[in-house]
Amino acid sequence: MTEEQLIKRLLEDSDLKDLREMFMAQRACNVEPEVPNDLFLRPILEYDGTTAYTGSVVYTSPDIWIAGMGVETREDLVSKYNESHDANVELGKNNNIYIRAKNASAQQLKDRIVRLYYCESQYVCWPSYWMPIKTDQDLDYAKFGDVGAGEIVAALNSFFWERVPNPPSGEHYCLIAQIDNEAGTLNPKPAGEIKRVDFANMLRQKCLWGQRNVNVLNKGTVVCNKSAITTDGPDDRAGEYVIMLNTTDCKGLSIEIQCSQKDSKGHDIRLSKTVITDDHGTMTGCDFYLDPNYKAYASTYLYVDGLDPQKEPSVNSRFMAVGADNELDYAVKNQLIDFRSSVIAYDLGIRKSATPLIPMGGIKFTVKK
User: Fold this and answer.
1) Angle, to 10 degrees, between the axis of helix 17-29 and the axis of helix 3-12?
2) What is the per-residue pLDDT across 82-119, written as a single tens digit (0 to 9) for each?
3) Count of CB atoms within 10 A of residue 327's CB?
């Protein structure tokens, strides 16, 4: 129905008298949302920010990009500015979410940040029920860096929604993004209850807020473990690394690894979902390259549907460095090289050549009865 058809119907149909009176009163108020003049989040994909947004759909922002277990680069997100993405997250897993925006002002912006919250759909008008989602750097906000006039950008870090819970109400979740400045004065979070009409208007005013409704997909019962992958430290820790998994009592189950970022050469740090074929000593993993001051989270998932109730499966996750030439003498003298893992990594094809592996850290988790 076009705008002209709607007006004609309201004016001529006697059954719509009450709606007609409200329509005329609303038009008389003539309250218009403001045109964006800062970074802005689109309510819908087609909106370009050159006029005020007056549409009624405010919950499908394409600038809240839900990658799930996937990983995107900032460059990819900018190049896909005219694309949207499925609004699905996976139950019980760590999901990656990215925020992008466009500068509608005529000046460079230097101190803009974005925060991200989630809530059950029934609490969308209660900011006190909005739960913050941190980035994969453990911050409750992500910076945009310097943003030129008219520039499209993605936030410098992704948001890392840990172990997405099942909505208790059985409904969907709402993701709410808030653009602000570092001082917190540009667009403060409201306090107390917001009326539904005020919330919708808040999303339209200058588009400093964005909302995306998301569905929760259950792809199997999963045990999730998170561990840090980092080269942050006083010495130069750049180089090649390996994650290796050793499983016990896991035959018939599946295992998967996904990192919150790509490695420093742009490759995924990932082990695709793999069926475990042995109860004892099965090893698998993946390798990657990291620059100095790299920090991300690797999530290990053990799918436990069909688990034998008499077993307590366990996974030992090991973060290992490939020994560099300048440290091998020291590593040998101090008995730091794990030769067993080095040979297995080569036999399994995790490493293309037999290289010495030095344990850097590890974590073990067990599925209790």
Assistant:
1) 130
2) 998 887 899 999 999 999 999 999 999 999 999 999 99
3) 14
